[in-house]
Amino acid sequence: MNAPAGAIRKKRHPFLQSLVKQREMWLLCVPIIVWVAVFCYYPMYGLLMAFVDYVPGREIWECDFVGLKYFARFITGNDFPRLLRNTLAMSGLSLTVGFVCPILFAFMLNELGNLKIKKFVQTASYLPHFISWVVAGAMVTQLLATDGVLNDLLLATGLIDEPISYLQKGEWYWGLYTVINIWKGLGWSTIIYLSAMSGVDEELYQAGVIDGLGRLGLARHITLPTLVPTIVLLWIMNVGNILTAGFDQHLIIGNTITQRYWDVIDTYSYRYGVQQGYYSMGTAVSFMKALVGFVLVLVTNFIARRASDVALF
């Protein structure tokens, strides 16, 4: 006995059902899918260079297979402790100070009652995000140079007797990097938290006021719990980038005097893989960094799911 036509339709895979039902939407996504496949997934074929002695001009499969040779050489090299120290130090500052600042700034903007002032401050805060690091680095250099604006101002007010070489003091570099990153990304990161705050039901605030909560109480008991899912998700993604501690800014504001403080894994990979032509070494370093970041995302996501029931997947 043949099954009814309706029963056959019910056995269709859910993905195929959505594909047929939303075929116009999928057709619109075809160019994006093709772009991702060509420019994001196809170049991953080049990761094979990390496992061979790559010679420019030859196909990868024609090169001698060396296994984990370049991974081991990087980890056991003399530069590895310094690179790891600098990378983790600056990433740690970004994950703590740099991560908290946008949250606090979003709370302060949310408390502004004057809408015009609020829009002006918000616009002014995220404008640096659109400035390239080349321009931002030139601005920082002009500001902090020995004959720069800051030294001229301090000398004119009598606070110092001689110019300070801010950019030549390696022990100041990590703090300088953190401040510059906060200045450049503060406003843009704040947008995410302000969007989450805008979704809070106004009746919750009204109920809180009736219960006697002040501004701090409303922020602590209503606004902050609303932001927790957003904070957790962003934290998970940022942990995955713990081995990414900047690149452009180091090449622009860094110098040979402070190199032992700003030289990180990315600049090392660029120096060996691009400038000196050791493509296998540069690929191995970048691949290892991406692999560690992926594992950290999985671990952090698992912990977040168990602790707060909020996770990426």
UniProtKB/TrEMBL annotation:
Protein name, as recorded: Sugar ABC transporter permease
Which GO terms of the cellular component aspect does the record hold? plasma membrane
- Identify the residues that the record assigns to the ABC transmembrane type-1 domain, covering every copy: 84-300
Spans through the membrane: 25-44, 88-109, 130-154, 174-196, 217-237, 278-304
How does it sit in the bilayer?
Multi-pass membrane protein
Q: Which UniProt keywords apply?
A: Cell membrane, Membrane, Transmembrane, Transmembrane helix, Transport
Transport found in the keyword field: yes
Answer whether the UniProt record assigns the keyword Transcription regulation to this protein.
no
Recorded hits in PROSITE patterns, A to Z, give: ABC_TM1
Q: Which CDD domains match?
A: TM_PBP2
Of which family is this protein a member? Belongs to the binding-protein-dependent transport system permease family.
Q: Name one Pfam family in it.
A: BPD_transp_1
Question: Please, one GO biological process term?
Answer: transmembrane transport
The record's subcellular location field reads: Cell membrane
Q: Which InterPro entries match?
A: MetI-like, MetI-like_sf, UgpAE/MalFG_permease
